[in-house]
User: What shape does this take?
Amino acid sequence: MTKFAAESAMSPELLAKYEPVIGLEVHVQLLTKTKIFCGCSTRFGDPPNSNVCPVCLGLPGTLPVLNKRAVEMAMRAALAINCTVHEHSRFARKNYFYPDLPKGYQISQYELPLATGGWLEIEVQGEKKRVGITRLHLEEDAGKSLHDGFPHSDEKTYVDFNRCGTPLSEIVSEPDLRTPDEAYAYLTTLRQILLYTGVSDVNMEEGSLRCDANVSIRRRGAEEFGTKVEVKNLNSFRYLAKALEYEIERHVAIIESGGRISQETRLWNQAANRTDSMRSKEKAHDYRYFPEPDLLPIHVSPAWSDEVLRSLPELPGAKRVRFVSVYAITPYDAEVLTGSEELADYFESVVKAGAPGKATANWMQTELLRRLNDSGKEITASPVKPTALGELVVLVDSGKITGAVGKKVFAAMFETGHSAAEIVAAEGLGTQVADDVIEKAAREVIEKNPDNVAKFKSGNEGVFKFFVGQVMKATKGQANPQAVNDIVRRLLS
Assistant: This one.
């Protein structure tokens, strides 16, 4: 792409002429202890080629045996994303040759997938949108090629077959996404659901969640899709957004200069911040799909499907709605607090300890999550347990300690693991300032600030906070805030 073309493609006027069309193919490594067709471990990080056997290495005379747990995990994912799980599905052989595919074919599903016709609801800039899901099917993973010395002439490639045969669910969306932000929101929403259901650890760094994007552009208002390009190697949410932005701009530049888009597969090159051509895009017939002769079709009875459906936990979307309704918190609070199931459980445990919902949401976001982030800890490793935070929130909410003191107490709780009551008692932090002491401090503040008194009396209500703050400072934060408010307002009036 020429410099001129790149600059032209980025202009809002040009981008306004074209509509991007994006679909995502997400490969999810299922959280089973053993592989999909043999008993080898799926444990990540073991020495290369230590978790292999004749079956997953494709040696002559071996036969695959289907892991029922993998089917159940895939069903959980399918039902959580509103797919229809079919009573009958079957495996197929997808034939292609690559060093990390020892059989020369991959066992996957083609014309009869496990589940079809689902959807997810995403939210981008306050707008909700339903994104269709074409299918979810089961397949085995390939091994991993490790390139040493690239790009020099003495490069060597090593193959680790540990991952070969790990169970995957491939989730294919409809081409309903129109912006990189929507694609990012879709992948984020899908990842959260998969975590809640326990289907996968969705660790992109370890390859448990991998995403390919299909992207094309068309004139605004046109019905027909443009020529699509597949982008692979998108192993982070940030790379997905950047790759889509690059491809959209590249497509616009080519069309505007009179060129044609080639249907191909491209790789995201993070070092160069661009996509690079990998190969021409294969079509289904290139893989010579045919039914897998060594495996029986999968039969999912209605009873089994119902059993799996009943075992699903409350999903993030439903939990957010309930949190807003039951605990009177904002939709933003609910979105933050349902970020993970563990975080949501922590919040509800604090409320069960007697703390009000809104106050709990505020304390968790402003104090707890900030300190956890700074210390690199997850919510499950929090030094402050839910009951301990609940006790602190109740102390502040009842006026026994002030909010400012509460923050000091929380910091001590986080560092020492002691309870709020212990810290308050040991350091004498309770609100022990009598009303006459508060009134004396308030009169002194008012006398020293005649200009602000005049502003207040002329209708400037905002200056009232100044007086309250000064009195709280004079009483070292140990006065009851409501008492300070009442006394200051009485004296000013």
Remarks:
- Confidence is low (pLDDT under 50) at residues 1-9.
- The radius of gyration is 30 Å.
- Residues 30 and 43 are 12 Å apart (CA to CA).
